[in-house]
């Protein structure tokens, strides 16, 4: 049984009215299964929520808000005399004044600080005017008895402290400006607040944090809109999968600090986000390869354009580990789960200090004991005017913004000396200078490579949404074919195309399915194609594609597979046979291995990539001087087996298309234009290295 009927996710904002046009960093709300709603200020958000909760009367509604429902332990008691977090909600509701263009949150924070020993925990005055007791920076502050973070935030990597009231990503203002609204809605609708109260009433308020789901965010122009949609749908999916209850249990024992839904249950959350249940896209239309009437010889570029238009993705989506992504196609926009680097750090081994404390000329700074190392942060702040040993990759300790290279220092046990001036922030790396958390790093359709696995890992993306591997079946036809493991009389031909095409498919990141070899026998061919259609997304056949007597492939496909024989103006290559067998596209490649290879590279590869969800892939060519001479007639585009030599690109001595050895001799193809050409040595010709075909 589901716990709830309706799920709403709200991305809150602590700032002022954001204007009429939907923008990021405003309030966004989304009901699971519906479209996100833009709410330009808190007054509108409160009205929208109230109206929605009224219309949901009689149903059980779970509303998630993305700001802390409590403060670090002890704070509620300090403010209200009561350990109850909800007493603190009432306390804020009684004091916060809020209209669309202004509010008193910084003054309230300053007043709280004033009543605490030392400076007090709140910081980050975002206003022009100074506020008593509210420092602009957090560096020199003391928290008194309160922790910097709640227990749950120590587990939620990248979360912010609720003491910080301004600055990118900060959450402190949202809490102060959110709790009063929630307090009023709670009273009006009798909502139960998780994890402080039992969820035995119609409306529940839970704390959410969309960044927990960052790796699974769908594509949306405005990130916040995508986030609330994702979280609302994830809550619904968890409830449907029976895991929401377990995730809610993780909040037990959190006391007045509160908990974030999903922390401690990340695997359940991820399972709820997994898009594997997305329906597969429909099969291709039966007439997708039909050529318009009157088209006879098709130039290569026309054929490619027609092919591109004819095919579309046929595979579904799955999630895979970032450790196994090479050759996989990204299924939906991937965003960084955290910044790279995540925090300001040192680019060198040296000594760190506050830049303002060191001037020009000889500098001597007292050296603190201890050090900051990569993976071993320095606990505590560095007082202004002191220096600390820092190693490459170390997070800059509080109070340090500049590092001087150790080679430029002389050091004693107690002091470090160097010559100024030193550039502000010298030898440091800014947080997010490479990638900022939430940045889109890969678009859907990108084919992932080894270096991409490195980037995904660096950004904390473990599971990657990719398209299922395209299953490419490879079938050889012809009575004359035998396996190379057999002795063969000379009237037999070893099947060269099948191992070649299977391994091309593998190199392109597809799942290669060996469909074996069938003789020129119509019934055998038909039953093999039937089997193949059940287990493959696309079928590559070779042989039997010309119009000769033995060409059963063409004949069968013509009768039952809506065959379209494309007479493409290219050499080497017979007509390219395109058909659909039970909805599965069939590429009938030439039997001749050289022609089969060239047609696979030029036509089958981009078509398969598009079927696999990747973009259409035109090979990258380079104009290079010819180290050969050749005259060609107009009419057909030609591909010559080629490789780079000392004087330019060389071509294989014989153009004979039976010469398979030329494929191994070559490192690429020279592409000669459709028209006539007379090439002399030194002329620039277009060279397509096999690397341009992903080989
Ligand atoms: P076909 O298209 O069946 O007329 O074949 C054209 C030429 O390619 C003939 O010489 C076939 O023997 C040869 N051929 C067809 N399939 C293969 C294959 N799988 N491996 C090697 N040669 C083949
Ligand atoms: Mg044949």
Automatic annotation (TrEMBL):
Cofactor(s) annotated in UniProt: Mg(2+)
Reactions performed catalytically: adenylyl-molybdopterin + molybdate = Mo-molybdopterin + AMP + H(+)
EC number: 2.10.1.1
Keywords: Magnesium, Metal-binding, Molybdenum, Molybdenum cofactor biosynthesis, Transferase
InterPro entries noted in UniProt: MoaB/Mog-like_dom_sf, MoaB/Mog_dom, MoCF_biosynth_CS, MoeA-like, MoeA_C_domain_IV, MoeA_C_domain_IV_sf, MoeA_linker/N, MoeA_linker/N_sf
GO CC terms, sorted: cytosol
Membrane-spanning residues: none
One GO MF term attached to the UniProt entry: molybdopterin molybdotransferase activity
GO biological process, any: Mo-molybdopterin cofactor biosynthetic process
Limits of the MoaB/Mog domain: 473-610
Function: Catalyzes the insertion of molybdate into adenylated molybdopterin with the concomitant release of AMP.
NCBIfam families: molyb_syn
Family to which this protein belongs: Belongs to the MoeA family.
Protein known as: Molybdopterin molybdenumtransferase
The organism of origin for this protein: Litoreibacter meonggei
